[in-house]
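User: I'm writing a short methods note and want a consistent example. For Ig-like domain-containing protein, I'll paste the sequence; you return only the structure tokens, no commentary, since I'll be parsing the reply automatically.
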Amino acid sequence: MKSRIASTTALMVTLVVCLTPPAASLPTRLKMTTTTTMREETTPSTKAEGVIMNGTMVRIGFSEEAWVYCRAQVPTDHHLHHYQVKWVTATGKMVSPWSRHNAGPQVYTLGGGPHIPHSYLVFDPFVPSHASHYSCILVFNGTPVHQSTIRVDQS
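Assistant:
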């Protein structure tokens, strides 16, 4: 059996890519492990959180293009497809995903969709009106379960 095993510590999950043979010919021990770990969660992990990798405050220069990164930190026994990361402004308004139709200075998100428990908050470019608090919300099956906040100021 040819396989590649890669560990992604940023998402705290182990990815196994089997090139050949099909799953029916996998060893029994591997089949049992897969069955055990593939249970469906109905409640979020108490250890799951959205972590803003830039800290709690960042300063961005006028007219610079910059981003803030948030990722889900979820125990390895939970499926990532239950989690999403979303960004909201200080007023609670959801930050919209990137759109090529928006003109002028804007704040938007990249990532954060289903099966992608991480997201970038992008300032393109940064202007003084963008200075504010922004929150990264970790969502489990549509329900917010954790929030991290960062203050973004102009340098």
